[in-house]
From TrEMBL:
It comes from Streptomyces broussonetiae. Pfam families: MC3 (PF20131). It comes from the Bacteria. The lineage of its organism: Bacteria, Bacillati, Actinomycetota, Actinomycetes, Kitasatosporales. InterPro entries: ABC-3C_MC3. This is Three component ABC system middle component.
Length: 160
């Protein structure tokens, strides 16, 4: 099945509560690495990427890997992002709104922060759910390492 053709089961899995958690994990990763509020585009991009199995399996083992070299070695990531970003962003947006409305994520200046102790540590659960959360956390730490988010989006082949 192609990433862009979300099945009924995947749509049920990617409900607002779960996609809120994915955004939270991305923000937690960013906060851990940069000790500041996470820019909204980083949280959304990390969540969109984490929700795609083809991208999750291609992620490097460490955030020390250079994004540009990784993308050169994994051209399929650009293709997947080009095909899926609009549909998955539409899935992520309600989750982000849910996280903000439930006060799990907060706006701080122009970025997002996680309310302290609002979300517990990663729990054992369905393997796919855990993999998505771990990928979002890693991407929240790693995506900004190349520079501005507009540069990252350009490298991914996504128009802001």
């Amino acid at each position: 099945m192609a990433d862009r053709d979300l099945s009924r089961e995947e749509r049920a899995l990617f409900n607002p509560a779960f996609t809120a958690l994915v955004c939270v994990r991305a923000v937690q990763g960013y906060e851990k690495q940069y000790r500041s509020a996470c820019p909204l585009p980083v949280a959304v991009t990390a969540a969109v990427m984490a929700l795609q199995p083809s991208i999750r399996t291609a992620l490097p083992a460490t955030i020390r890997t250079g994004l540009m070299n990784w993308l050169d070695e994994n051209e399929a990531v650009r293709v997947a992002m080009g095909l899926n970003v609009a549909a998955l962003a539409a899935v992520v947006r309600p989750g982000l709104l849910f996280a903000l409305q439930s006060d799990v994520l907060r706006l701080q200046g122009s970025g997002l922060t996680v309310k302290p102790r609002a979300v517990t540590a990663l729990q054992d659960g369905p393997e796919q759910n855990t993999a998505i959360q771990k990928a979002a956390h890693q991407l929240g730490r790693w995506l900004p390492s190349t520079g501005s988010i507009s540069t990252v989006l350009t490298l991914l082949g996504v128009q802001a």
